[in-house]
Write a structure and sequence with these properties.
The complex is a heterodimer of chains A (about 230) and B (about 650). Chain A has about 230 residues and is mostly beta strands. Helices cover about 0% and strands about 40% of the residues of chain A. Chain A contains one helix and 22 strands. The two termini of chain B are about 35 Å apart. Classes of the chains: A mainly beta (about 230), B alpha+beta (about 650).
């Protein structure tokens, strides 16, 4: 069995999960947590980090960060490419996780099974271990979400497919790197944070609105949002 | 892209904006969350608020799984209107089409078709037509098709037979009859047909470099279905019929026929269901006119109608144009003679028939082109093999352009002025053909005008005139002066060639009107110079009589210190240069010769040009008979020789791929 390295500690001061509202693009969640959980709908206190309207258990799967990337730990029925996964497995670019109903009386998760939740894991940038998780089955998140960015080293916003979050109308790139002081945001042109000019490098926290090069996005701390 | 409201704004009580989603012509769309946590889309109306509100109000209580639900219409403290509606987060059809540049898999196409049919059938049964179906308005929302943007929807009721006030829809997907403002639910069938072609091939059936060209193709062109799977071609051809009466009657019928064709895999020509099977049509839809309005031969091999031949088309336009010029000019001269006579020697009661008759003749030439005459119902066909007698004039065109911009959502192939560029070889070949055609047209028109004018005794430039010893005009010589005819023709050809150049360059380089006028004016000076040199060489007796023409001698006979007339009242270089400069710069020649015009020949354009020439000679001294005739013939030849993109250069096939 593959042994994964010990999860790293959170690296963004204060926030563990940030929600990113990007004008004209979508809504994303950036997770800096060492362990990110996915599950079905439940009460707030017991909810997974990513709740999906489905028959999954409250915590159906955990994804942990390792030095080499991310590792999936099934807590409920899960298969990858038709093979049942019962133990930890490293995630690779393009992997599709099929999460099935824990209480199903017959095997589910086949090609024609509409109830199975399918998630795709990608690592679009060749030099970054940061992963992106998307729903590819016809399920909805409890709160609207386009994708989850599992931040390993950085999160890149830009026009190319190799960016973790693709923003079509932007010419430059926004690079967000977690650090002890907060989230370091670096751009190629002048940046405004909460309407104040901050040059091309700034530390941003939750509840910040960033404008740069025609792109505007807002960061919100999910924990504060829930409270 | 800048949006009005920042995240966390609360312009509407009870809702917090989280992010902007999209900006369109009507306004901006935001993703917002209610105080209770409900996720909604808020649409802020900025433009054409009444139009949007009317459409949305109609659909406020329509409920269907395949329609984007509208919750409410609200007004903020500033008086702005907001539409609160369901937030749809799925992939749009245009995004999915972009993922499959060579065409989507058939199972996906069928899934979209099913969802769209369900939603549209519900709308149509509810008496509402969508009118703005396009991939950017359709969403794949977690496995369900959602039809959005019902803001342009329109109630179809038997009582509303009259034309709509404005054309609507997005030009790539717009049914031809929308241009005329009379339409029903089959416009949605047409749009669905266009989208099916795009889904199957990744390409639109009608594309063009400008809105006008696309509209022209919708009105006259045959869709290229060669890249669609063979079994479904006949079904799609019927869905894209220009004539709504021939088109598949409902979206449900289209789905059935399409699915049947896919399942059986046969390419049998589509046969419409019988009247017993077809859903009942209301009288509004029965009022559809024959949009194409032409009799076309039916190509049995393809099931598509073939257009008229290029020769017949040119011949008919040439004949009609020539007759229009002759009759119109005759009317104008009659009017001017009557007016002049009434002011001098002739009593008004005697001059009145001249004035009225002249005006009537001019009116007869203008009326059919300038005023809308409702076509007859039910299969009325024009007896001649002409392209559609559309009344889709410039004003209407501008409305549609506006509407298309309004409704154009971001997509891979949005509606920029330039979508595809034609190869330079094609442009050169086209220009060469136009130059050749212009020579032929000039010869025919000049010759025809000479013969006709001599028969009717109308004063045109290239007849010899008989004057008294004191220079008074006694009458017209019956003899043709070949030198004058040649001079007239040569200058006309030179003018047409000179005008075609900025027209084509303007289309290519996307010049504005001012630039076109400036370049044309400079070319006019060059043409005037050549005309002056030719005049010197051929010694053309091109004089402005002392009494002028129709009593008008020109208010100014000098340009600064430079005389416009020489010692025998012949135009000087300044006279020629000024006249041609003004004529070329004043008239909007690019409208007359654009490849995207919807009518090959417009009599009104000839009259406008003649009138401009008349005004020039009223102010600046120049022989009016030459000026008016040149204006009429140059305008006619420019129009007749300019090929549109609907008519490729001879020898390059019916369609330029």
């Amino acid at each position: 069995m593959w042994k994964h390295a010990a999860p790293s500690s959170p690296r963004v001061k204060g926030a563990e999960i940030l929600r990113l509202w990007i004008d004209g693009v979508g809504v994303y969640v950036m997770s800096f947590k060492p362990t990110f959980t996915i599950g079905g709908p439940s009460e707030k206190n017991h909810a997974a980090d990513w709740s999906i309207w489905s028959t999954l258990s409250q915590i159906h799967v955990e994804i942990t960060r390792s030095d080499e990337g991310f590792v999936v730990h099934p807590a409920g029925p899960m298969n990858i490419s038709g093979s049942t996964v019962a133990s930890a497995l490293p995630l690779r670019h393009g992997t599709i996780l099929t999460l099935t109903d824990a209480n199903a009386s017959r095997p589910t998760g086949g090609a024609g099974d509409d109830s199975a939740v399918r998630l795709q894991f990608t690592q679009p940038h060749p030099l970054s271990l940061t992963g992106v998780l998307r729903l590819v089955s016809a399920h909805r998140s409890v709160q609207t979400l386009d994708a989850v960015v599992l931040v390993h080293d950085c999160c890149l916003l830009g026009p190319r497919k190799s960016h973790h979050i693709v923003c079509g109308d932007v010419s430059g790139e926004v690079r967000m790197t977690p650090g002890d002081a907060g989230l370091s945001c670096r751009t190629e042109s002048l940046m405004y944070v909460n309407d104040e000019p901050r040059g091309m490098n700034a530390i941003v926290h939750g509840a910040s609105t960033v404008e740069v090069d025609g792109l505007r996005f807002r960061l919100e701390d999910v924990k504060e949002e829930q409270s | 892209m800048k949006f009005t409201y920042a995240p966390e704004s609360r312009p509407l009580d009870g809702f917090t904006i989280k992010r902007a989603v999209h900006r369109g012509h009507f306004g901006e769309v935001y993703f917002a969350v209610s105080d209770a946590g409900k996720e909604v889309a808020l649409k802020l109306l900025r433009q054409d608020v009444d139009v949007e509100l009317r459409g949305v109000t109609q659909c406020l209580n329509l409920k269907h799984p395949h329609l984007v639900t509208i919750f409410d219409i609200r007004q903020d403290d500033d008086g702005d209107h907001w539409i609160v509606m369901e937030y749809v987060s799925g992939q749009r059809l245009d995004q999915m089409i972009a993922e499959y540049p060579r065409g989507m898999p058939m199972e996906k196409v069928l899934a979209w078709l099913n969802g769209l049919t369900e939603g549209l059938t519900y709308m149509h049964r509810s008496g509402v037509v969508h009118r703005d179906l396009k991939p950017a308005n359709l969403f794949w929302d977690h496995g369900h098709v959602k039809i959005g943007d019902v803001g342009l929807s329109k109630i179809i009721s038997p009582s509303k037979k009259s034309a709509q006030t404005q054309s609507v829809g997005t030009v790539y997907y717009m049914a031809p009859e929308v241009a005329h403002g009379k339409y029903g639910r089959t416009v949605d069938v047409y749009s669905l047909g266009v989208m099916l072609v795009e889904m199957l091939t990744g390409e639109l059936p009608f594309e063009g470099e400008t809105v006008a060209e696309i509209l022209f193709k919708h009105l006259t062109g045959e869709p290229d279905l060669s890249r669609c799977p063979t079994p479904v071609r006949s079904v799609l051809a019927r869905a894209l019929e220009k004539d709504p009466d021939k088109r598949i009657a409902s979206v449900d019928e289209l789905r059935s026929a399409f699915e049947r064709a896919v399942k059986t895999g046969t390419s049998e020509p589509y046969v419409a269901s019988t009247s017993a099977q077809a859903p009942p049509e209301n009288s509004f839809e029965k009022g559809f006119q024959n949009v194409a309005g032409r009799s076309r031969s039916h190509d049995k091999s393809t099931g598509l109608d073939a257009g008229p031949s290029e020769f017949a088309y040119v011949f008919k336009a040439l004949r009609d144009g020539f007759l229009a010029i002759v009759i119109g000019l005759f009317g104008a001269i009659l009017f001017l003679v009557g007016l002049r006579s009434s002011l001098s020697f002739m009593p008004l009661w005697l001059a009145t028939p001249f004035i009225v008759g002249g005006l009537y003749l001019v009116w007869r030439q203008i009326r059919p082109h300038y005023f809308y005459a409702p076509p007859k119902r039910h299969g009325h066909r024009s007896p001649t093999p002409l392209p559609p007698k559309t009344n889709f004039q410039v004003d209407e065109l501008e409305v549609v352009e506006e509407a298309s911009q309004r409704t154009a959502a971001p997509r891979a192939k949005s509606i920029p002025p330039i979508v595809v560029s034609r190869p330079l070889s094609y442009q050169v070949q086209r220009m060469a053909w136009e130059m050749i055609i212009s020579v032929i047209c000039t010869v025919l028109l000049t010759g025809g005008l000479t013969v006709v004018s001599s028969q009717f005794g109308v004063e045109v430039p290239f007849h010899g005139t008989i004057h008294t010893a004191h220079g008074e005009l006694v009458g017209l010589s019956r003899e043709w002066d070949f030198g004058m005819v040649g001079f007239f023709g040569a200058v006309t050809i030179l003018s047409v060639w000179g005008l075609l150049l900025p027209i084509r360059l303007g289309e290519w380089r996307d010049w504005d009107g001012g630039t076109c006028r400036l370049i044309s004016g400079i070319i006019g000076i060059a043409v005037g110079t050549v005309a002056y040199l030719l005049d010197l060489w051929l010694l053309i007796p091109l004089n402005l009589p002392e009494e002028g023409h129709f009593g008008m001698v020109g208010i100014f006979d000098h340009l600064g210190r430079q005389p416009l007339l020489g010692v025998v009242r012949e135009p000087t270089w300044f006279g020629y240069a000024l006249f041609f400069f003004m004529l070329f710069a004043l008239v909007r020649w690019w409208k007359q010769g654009t490849a995207f015009r919807l009518k090959r020949f417009r009599t009104w354009a000839v009259f406008t040009t003649v009138f401009a020439s008349f005004i020039i000679t009223v102010f600046w001294a120049f022989p009016m008979n030459w000026a008016l005739t040149w204006a009429a013939v140059i305008s006619s030849v420019v129009q007749l020789s300019s090929l549109s993109y609907g008519q490729p250069p001879p020898g390059t096939g019916k369609k330029k791929k």
